[in-house]
């Protein structure tokens, strides 16, 4: 399968790195990035063809992955439309750009897919949701995204909410990591030790959560020894309405997905 990856920025580079790490031959990937100096740097770093000419990059591609900002999706699709192979599948990673909008800009009959993934693609631990018109065979695209993590098929009506929890989601954890690290360092902990311990705590907790069939609330109770330190922390979080704040943050991200220029 030949893949074009257009607009390799933060997310695109994570996807590129993950795909190559998964064993996808670099010769099967044609990427684009701007400006030309960035394209050259990426080509050196990953050993793939990286140029700035989108129509040339898609000419041989079976799958075209769009990783440009939402506002740039429409013009990009119009530019590549005439060069797309007749059976090409176009997968947009852009937040908030509906399938209908993709279809409007593509040649009639082109298969369009929305994929919401995240920055953990680099570590091949992305959480990806795919949405497409009813009846679309997503097997090949699912296999492709399975190389860089876990993939689910979703209804398009869920994509803004999925963007909030899966696409933006890692930022919520980095926010927590940042706050905890600052608290540890402010309390006198060595910054290197704080980083090592907090990274490992997050990784271990997430692996345990993924391994367990129990809901997060049940795992949380097991840490909270009656009358102990965790209870004190949880009471403080509740007093600050952190649950409400997280729900509001998810809602704000989802709402923004519906408002993005390009949507
Ligand atoms: N950053 C993330 O963690 C996530 C991002 N997304 C989506 O991925 C897309 C990219 O986001 P980021 O990587 O954060 O943005 P970014 O700004 O880091 O990357 C976009 C890249 O596209 C390039 N670009 C723009 N127009 C181009 C064109 N016509 N041809 C070639 N390259 C072009 C830009 O130079 C830039 O390097 C967005 O649509 C965003 O909604 C989705 C999920 C997670
Ligand atoms: O912040 C954004 O708009 C993109 C989409 C999800 C994560 N980053």
Automatic annotation (TrEMBL):
InterPro entries: 6-PGluconate_DH-like_C_sf, NAD(P)-bd_dom_sf, P5C_Rdtase_cat_N, P5CR-like_CS, P5CR_dimer, Pyrroline-COOH_reductase. Catalyzes the reduction of 1-pyrroline-5-carboxylate (PCA) to L-proline. The lineage of its organism: Bacteria, Bacillati, Actinomycetota, Actinomycetes, Glycomycetales. Keywords: Amino-acid biosynthesis, Cytoplasm, NADP, Oxidoreductase, Proline biosynthesis. This is Pyrroline-5-carboxylate reductase. Pathway: Amino-acid biosynthesis; L-proline biosynthesis; L-proline from L-glutamate 5-semialdehyde: step 1/1. It is found in: Cytoplasm. Residues 156-260 form the Pyrroline-5-carboxylate reductase dimerisation domain. It is an enzyme of class 1 (oxidoreductase). It comes from the Bacteria. It comes from Glycomyces tritici. It catalyses: L-proline + NADP(+) = (S)-1-pyrroline-5-carboxylate + NADPH + 2 H(+); L-proline + NAD(+) = (S)-1-pyrroline-5-carboxylate + NADH + 2 H(+). The gene is proC. Its EC number is 1.5.1.2. GO terms for molecular function: pyrroline-5-carboxylate reductase activity. Pfam families: F420_oxidored (PF03807), P5CR_dimer (PF14748). Belongs to the pyrroline-5-carboxylate reductase family. Residues 3-96 form the Pyrroline-5-carboxylate reductase catalytic N-terminal domain. NCBIfam families: proC. SUPFAM superfamilies: 6-phosphogluconate dehydrogenase C-terminal domain-like, NAD(P)-binding Rossmann-fold domains. The keyword Endoplasmic reticulum does not apply.
């Amino acid at each position: 399968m030949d893949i074009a990856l257009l607009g390799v920025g933060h997310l695109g580079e994570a996807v590129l790195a993950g795909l190559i790490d998964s064993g996808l031959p670099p010769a099967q990937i044609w990427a684009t990035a701007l400006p030309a100096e960035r394209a050259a740097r990426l080509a050196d770093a990953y050993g793939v063809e990286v140029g700035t000419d989108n129509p040339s990059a898609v000419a041989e591609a079976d799958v075209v992955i769009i990783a440009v900002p939402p506002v740039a999706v429409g013009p990009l699709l119009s530019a590549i439309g005439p060069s797309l192979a007749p059976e090409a599948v176009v997968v947009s990673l852009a937040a908030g750009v509906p399938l209908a909008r993709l279809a409007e800009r593509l040649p009639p009959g082109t298969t369009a897919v929305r994929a919401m993934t995240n920055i953990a693609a680099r570590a091949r631990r992305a959480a990806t949701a795919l949405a497409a018109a009813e009846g679309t065979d997503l097997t090949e695209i699912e296999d492709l995204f399975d190389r860089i993590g876990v993939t689910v098929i979703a209804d398009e009506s869920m994509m803004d909410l999925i963007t909030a929890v899966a696409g933006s989601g890692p930022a919520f954890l980095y926010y927590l990591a940042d706050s905890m690290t600052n608290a540890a360092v402010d309390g006198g902990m060595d910054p290197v030790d704080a980083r090592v311990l907090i990274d490992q705590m997050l990784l271990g907790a997430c692996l345990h959560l993924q391994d367990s069939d129990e809901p997060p609330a049940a795992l949380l109770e097991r840490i909270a020894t009656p009358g102990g330190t965790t209870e004190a922390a949880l009471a403080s979080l509740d007093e600050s309405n952190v649950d409400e704040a997280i729900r509001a943050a998810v809602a704000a991200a989802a709402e923004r997905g519906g408002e993005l220029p390009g949507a």
